[in-house]
Amino acid sequence: MSATRENPEKPGIFVRMFDGGTYEVFWLDGHSVVEKARNEEVQSGEPISHYLEHKHVDNFVREMYSPWGEFEGYASLRQLTLHESVHYLARKARICAFLRPKGQASRFIQGLLKGKDRNEHKLAAEVERLIPNFGEDPLAAGTKSAVYRIMESQLLNLTTG
Fold it and tell me: pTM for the full model?
């Protein structure tokens, strides 16, 4: 199995921040992100396929008929991709991302900390809390990197109050 961003087997940090300042952060794999999108489709009544049609993607459900013309139900033409599900979940959010690997999550934190928004700083702290789930990166195990990480975590503690 490849380690691309679209790989649904590979876990990462799912982040979503809404306009009201509320946010959610989860450690999920790609299958869970797609399942989250499908659950929200059921709860909201807004079909994912409607969103995808606006993105010029073929309908992913087709009506099926017997040779006698009797309706037999619906058939899925394809599965929702991880990329599509993140975009679906982001429609009513300011920030929505599925962060993989560790370096991408670190850059996301740095971007959040550049702002003055207290909620973004809290969100950065939540993402920071989940980063150890990626495991230790052998290239970042040097003493300078370790010292930098300690200083960064102290800064996060100060800025998130």
Answer: 0.69
